[in-house]
Amino acid sequence: MLRASMIAGLALTASLAQAQPSPHPQADAQALDLAEKAIALRSVRGPGNQTPQVATLYRSALIAGGFPPADVTITPVDDTAYLIARWRGSEPRLKPLVISGHMDVVEARAADWQRDPFTPVIEHGYLFGRGASDMKLDGTIAIAALNELRREGYRPRRDIVLEFSGDEETTMKSSAIIADQLTGADLVLNIDGGNGTLDEVTGKPEYFTWQGAEKTYADFEMTVTNPGGHSSEPRKLNAINELAAALVRIGNYQFKPEANELTRASLAQAARYEDPTTGAAMRAFAADPTDPAAIAVLTANPATVGKIGTTCIATMISGGHAVNALPARATANINCRIFPGHKPAEIMAELARVAGDPAITFTDVTVGSVATDASPMRPDFVAAVQKGLAKVYPGVPVFPSMASGASDSMWFRAKGVPSYGASPLFNKDSDDFAHGRNERIPLFNITPAITYYLSVVTDLSK
User: Fold this and answer.
1) HSE, side-chain direction, 13 A CA sphere, residue 302
2) 422 neighbors 194 (Cβ within 8 angstroms)
3) 297/285 Cα distance (integer angstroms)
4) Which of 168, 239, 319, 416 is most buried by a 10 A CB count?
5) Alpha-helical segments (H) within 40-136
6) Mean pLDDT across the stretch 55-69?
7) Cβ contacts of residue 187 below 8 Å, gap of 6+?
8) What is the Cα–Cα distance from 127 to 438, expressed in whole angstroms?
9) Beta bridge partners of 97
């Protein structure tokens, strides 16, 4: 494991880091030490789940940093657990600032990796291991930053609540429980969202995006049934044929393109990092969401179609019960990513209209998802993030984004609490292996990330 002097050396020699010694070597060393220990704990749902041990590790670090033991609680939930730590502010009447993360990771099989996924490895300036980027290093950096603030004598006016869920990657049961307990928060700083992008050639920070919205995840089951019968006596109505025809209609359907304040800003500013044709379409759509030429370009591109509206696709299909019988039943799953502002029932009804067959029934079979609107672009949050990034990466553009996947922000937004993904970790797109094999994160991130958190947390807890 690297000690503070080695981290300072990395900060001085890595081409991605700023050429100056770390101003907080103790915090840097603690962040990496905790991350290595956390990665070594297999916090995966199922038999042998070690998420509770990660919670114990984090609790011990927070208590050693000055949190009263009574203010750092671990609560078991099924085979996992969640942690809530409260740093009490000087003015209890103020709504708390919540810093949100998770301790669990997705499954990883050693046979698929070049290195054992649950043995932390440091090579060539990277930390390897399951959870390195999603999101054990980010979590331990936040812990180290709060401990550093305590060492520096900082006194927040409002409570600072640090919480880690234990099943964000699976059922999100603890995520929902935590949001229920913290509905009175002023805002949530979700450190499992947002990110910085490094230039693929130079390796220098290119831009940073924070997340202010997520598309709602939904699964709808389409079902066709009929009496069936012997295959030697075919009938015009065939459950498989009916379902197939409806699926073709749905596959050809385009939901109405949409934009909101956040996505307009995101498209307009992200356009500069795209090829000329895509970039021009993004700018045109941001200016006029009814522009047919811009819509044609963006809907034809898998990377951009989801940024301008709801998308639904068939992901699974099943039908029939025997090779020599007419199918009595056929089903398909339609997976949707719904643009903020729409309820799943509304989209399911639209799909039923597109299917155009009254014999087909639609059922919402979504698990672990709730519909949410975008969080407001709060000036205090935006200013705090821009200020924090400017301290470590002067001149790097900062702009909002909308996520296609779900995070714990979903549960807070459903309660009316603004939540923002704002992790300061930077990576190349080609090095993004979260949920994949050989997950990694550049170590140079530690020093600037702690400086960023010190700035942002201070500004938002005054």
Assistant:
1) 1
2) yes
3) 10
4) 168
5) 51-64
6) 98
7) 97, 98, 378, 381, 417, 418, 419, 420, 460
8) 10
9) 160, 187
Render pLDDT for 354-386 as a digit per residue (tens, 0 to 9).
999 999 999 999 988 999 999 999 999 999 999
- Report residue 161 as tokens: 């609540």
Place of tokens 């938002």: 460
The 3-state secondary structure of 245-278 reads HHHHHHHCCCCCCCCCHHHHHHHHHHHHHCCHHH
What secondary structure does DSSP assign to 364-388, as a single string? E---S----PPPP--HHHHHHHHHH
268, 250 Cβ separation under 8 angstroms = no
**Helix axes of 25-39 and 4-13: crossing angle, nearest 10 degrees:** 100
Amino acid identity of 110? A
Residue-level pLDDT at 116: 94
Copy the structure tokens of residue 148: 């550093």
* pTM: predicted TM-score of the whole model, two decimal places: 0.90
Decide the pairing of beta strands 419-421 and 187-190.
Answer: parallel
Decide if 87 contacts 169 (C-beta within 8 A). no
3-state SS of 3-34 is CHHHHHHHHHHCCCCCCCCCCCHHHHHHHHHH
Given phi > 0 = left and psi -120 to 50 = alpha, else beta, which region is 125? left
Side chain identity at 174, as an amino acid letter?
Answer: S
Contact 168, 91 (CB under 8 A): no
**105-135 core/surface letters (b: 16 or more CB in 10 A; e: else):** bbebeeeebeeebbebbbeeebbbbbbbbbb
Query: What's at 162, amino acid-wise?
Result: L
pLDDT of residue 431: 80
- Strand-pairing partners, residue 314, are 334
Mean pLDDT for 251-276 is 96
| Both structure tokens of 373 | 């609107």
- Other beta carbons within 10 angstroms of residue 241's beta carbon come to 14
Q: What is the pLDDT of residue 405?
A: 79
Q: Residues 6 or more apart from 13 whose CB is under 8 A from it?
A: none
Residues 145 and 133 sit within 8 Å (Cβ to Cβ): no
Percent helix / strand / coil, the chain, rounded to 5: 40, 20, 40
Distance CA 229, CA 217 (A): 37
**Collapsing DSSP states into helix, strand and coil, what is residue 392?**
helix
Cα 272–309–302 angle (5° rounding)?
A: 60
327 touches 239 (CB < 8 A): yes
- Whole-number Å distance between alpha carbons of 125 and 441: 9
pLDDT value at position 432?
80
Query: How confident is the prediction for the chain on average, in pLDDT?
Result: 93
